[in-house]
Each structure stands twice: as structure tokens, then as C-alpha cells.
């Protein structure tokens, strides 16, 4: 995913810098992410991690390696499928949908199926 501030692009569990395609490092196993955003004051990139039902973070002033990537929030019910993530001010917002229920179970039209968590 292209990030306009730092121009990072996520490739599987690694990060590449878009302009020079410079290898940054490894986030670790099961850390694939489709949504990222950058919090400039803290110099932290937040990741929506579907594989772990979690939000991960990494401070760009540290080496990109599994020991420097932290789980900020994890919930197998509330964060079951994070479809988007956005940093606004000092808050992280995530859009979650219930697509796993639709694919693997019964989709209940009487329940809320999209959520925004802050």
C-alpha cells in the first residue's frame, strides 16, 4: 500500500520504500497487512493485520524486525476482519466487516455487519 508521507509500500511481511525500492526489513510471521497509516508526531506506522485480528505498529526510528513490531490491539471478535485503518490526529480508526461470517458461516442480516472502532 502506498503511503504519501513516507512513501512506504507493504509487500507481504516486508516493507519496501517506493521511490528507490529499498528493502526496509521484516515484520515477522503472520503480519501481512493491506491497510497502513502514519502518525507523524510519534513516527509510528500502524498496520491493520487480518491474520491476527490485530493492529500492529512500528516506530520508523528503529530497525524493522519482529522484536520492534508491537501489537497495539487484538480482538478475535471486534477486529475479526479489518478492512481499513486511518490515523486522524492522535487516534486510530479501523473499519471492520463480517466477511468471514459471510464466507464460512451464515450471514445474519438482522445483525450489524460493519463497524468503526476508535
Low-confidence stretches: 1-13
**Count of DSSP-assigned helices:** 1
Order of helices and strands: EEEEEEEEEHE
Taking strands numbered 1, 2, ... along the chain, how are they ordered across the largest sheet?
A: 4-5-6-7
Rg computed from alpha carbons, rounded to a whole number of angstroms? 15 Å
Protein architecture, described:
The structure is a single chain. By secondary structure, the protein is mainly β. The chain has one helix spanning 99-104; strands spanning 8-11, 14-17, 22-26, 33-39, 44-49, 54-59, 69-74, 82-88, 91-97, 114-117. The protein has one domain. It is globular and about 45 Å long. The two termini are 21 Å apart. Belongs to the major royal jelly protein family. Its main location: secreted.
Blueprint of the fold:
Blueprint: E1 8-11, E2 14-17, E3 22-26, E4 33-39, E5 44-49, E6 54-59, E7 69-74, E8 82-88, E9 91-97, H1 99-104, E10 114-117
Antiparallel strand pairs: 1-2, 2-3, 4-5, 5-6, 6-7, 8-9, 9-10
Keywords: Secreted, Signal
InterPro entries: 6-blade_b-propeller_TolB-like, MRJP/yellow-related
Pfam families: MRJP
Short recap of the structure:
With 118 residues, the chain is mainly beta. Helix content is 5%, strand content 47%. Belongs to the major royal jelly protein family.
